[in-house]
Design goal:
single chain, alpha/beta, Rossmann fold, 2 domains, six-stranded mixed beta sheet, four-stranded antiparallel beta sheet, 9 helices, about 35% helix, binds adenosine-5'-triphosphate, nucleotide-binding, P-loop_NTPase, ABC transporter ATP-binding protein, transport, ABC_transporter-like_ATP-bd
């Protein structure tokens, strides 16, 4: 059993299939999700986070069908949305505690788990500060803390490194490498360097489906010097997306 098993998955939003007959299998490890604007990355992650229902196809998460009983799956999930709301008056500790409670963690485990999650994202010294007093990068780190507080088996991170400074991005890469040893971690990003440095595997999406899955090194070999990009992996990305987006137009 893989953590994520999708076959012919369709997610319709309005008049579009944001996810369009997508098939994907992912197990333990750190997987990077790349693709141009509008490729369907956020919609896929929302669907895997059980926030959005599939329209057609089959999806199984941690061995449970996505149209089955989701409560046990949600307890083992960690999800950092691209934009996440929080009560600004919550202290950082309270924010992470609240999410741990929503995930139905045993009450006794919550204080220790919150302390550890805040340590892992380097926010222990801000635990008693209010969310509204944090910088943008710190809010994102608090978001990562709530995503990992329950030691998830499936961790979904939508653009987690936006707003992180270079030192924090390095720390983030170490953290996901640790987490990927026992969990399936899927990270959506536009930062190709993050994928090259942090991910064991790359999934490239375009127009709602997977156009490539392989190692960062495999992706790099898909490009040539004629393709757009500052690094081999960026040129590989451009080569695979090229027909639609490498024409130079927006
Ligand atoms: N609520 C919605 N209603 C209708 N269409 C939507 C909705 N949300 C997204 N879409 C459409 O679904 C497609 C996929 O969008 P999605 O946000 O999943 O892409 P993305 O790969 O995450 O893009 P980005 O890199 O810009 O964040 C786009 O065509 C988008 O316009």
């Amino acid at each position: 059993m893989q953590a994520i098993e999708a076959d012919g998955l369709v997610v319709r939003l309005g008049r579009r299939n944001a996810v369009d007959r997508l098939s994907l299998r992912l197990g333990r490890g750190v997987h990077g999700l790349l693709g141009p604007n509008g490729a369907g990355k956020t919609t896929l992650i929302r669907t895997l986070a059980t926030v959005q229902s599939p329209t057609a196809g089959t999806l199984s998460l941690l061995g449970t069908p996505a149209n089955g009983k989701l409560r046990p799956v949600r307890q083992k999930l960690g999800y950092l949305p691209q934009h996440f709301g929080h009560y600004k008056r919550f202290k950082v500790r309270e924010f992470v505690e609240y999410l741990a409670w929503l995930k139905e963690m045993p009450k006794k485990q919550i204080p220790g788990a919150v302390k550890e999650a805040l340590e892992r994202v380097g926010l222990s010294d801000r635990a008693e500060d209010r969310m509204k007093s944090l910088s943008g990068g710190m809010v994102r780190r608090a978001g990562i803390a709530q995503a990992i507080v329950n030691e998830p088996e499936l961790l979904l991170l939508d653009e987690p490194t936006v707003g992180l400074d270079p030192a924090q991005r390095l720390r983030f890469r170490e953290l996901v490498a640790e987490l990927g040893q026992r969990a399936c971690v899927l990270i959506s990003t536009h930062l190709v360097e993050d994928v090259a440095a942090a991910c064991t595997d790359v999934v490239l999406m375009n127009e709602g489906s997977v156009v490539f899955q392989g190692t960062p090194a495999d992706l790099a070999t898909a490009g040539t010097t004629t393709h757009v990009g500052d690094s081999p992996i960026e040129r590989g990305y451009s080569a695979l997306i090229s027909a639609k987006s490498a024409g130079g137009a927006w």
